[in-house]
Design goal:
The structure holds two protein chains of two kinds.
Chain A: E1 4-7, E2 10-13, E3 19-25, E4 31-37, E5 43-51, E6 54-57, E7 65-70, E8 73-78, E9 87-94, E10 106-107, E11 111-115
Parallel strand pairs in A: 2-11
Antiparallel strand pairs in A: 1-3, 3-8, 4-5, 4-9, 5-6, 7-8, 9-10, 9-11
Chain B: E1 5-7, E2 10-14, E3 19-24, E4 30-38, E5 45-50, E6 56-59, E7 62-67, E8 72-77, E9 86-94, E10 101-102, E11 106-111
Parallel strand pairs in B: 2-11
Antiparallel strand pairs in B: 1-3, 3-8, 4-5, 4-9, 6-7, 7-8, 9-10, 9-11
The chains are: A mainly beta, B mainly beta.
Amino acid sequence: DADVTQTPRNRITKTGKRIMLECSQTKGHDRMYWYRQDPGLGLRLIYYSFDVKDINKGEISDGYSVSRQAQAKFSLSLESAIPNQTALYFCATSDRIGLAGVNEQFFGPGTRLTVL
Amino acid sequence: ILNVEQSPQSLHVQEGDSTNFTCSFPSSNFYALHWYRWETAKSPEALFVMTLNGDEKKKGRISATLNTKEGYSYLYIKGSQPEDSATYLCAFIGNAGNMLTFGGGTRLMVKP
């Protein structure tokens, strides 16, 4: 079984709808991240969390919110989806040993979201 | 916003060719540089995390070097195989931050 799972894997929705993407992990990591990937732009960080009560904005947090319900779960919400949020979304985790920068990140399989 | 550039954007090579590509990043306040391999329809997977100027790391036929003073890292693949076809991503973190900043990736295609 995969260590980092994301649901749904694919979603098509309409402008204005509320969407939640879910991420679960069995790696026991404290640190979790949400990224979006657009062609040619690499991965851009939306939000990250270093603990259950810790939420931090990333580079492109506008239009998104997150919830860290438990150590193993980190959800990303789009309150009112718009077409330019069409992208591939990845969840990732990393260990808490040392500073965040030295720990490799483990990625989920991605959620492909299309907003019409 | 930090500027992390990868070149080339895409690369086609023949099986057996050796190849290399570049990641450029800010040379000030360096903390770590990550390399990830991302195959189509799969999750990105870490190749290397590099922290020291002059670091060289190797995993099988893939190796990487790091020059923090001039702000670049090279990824080398020796004797490319079709299964090396993937997008290779580098990511930089400065010592004041908690976030990785990714480059746009180099897409490698190896023809049999």
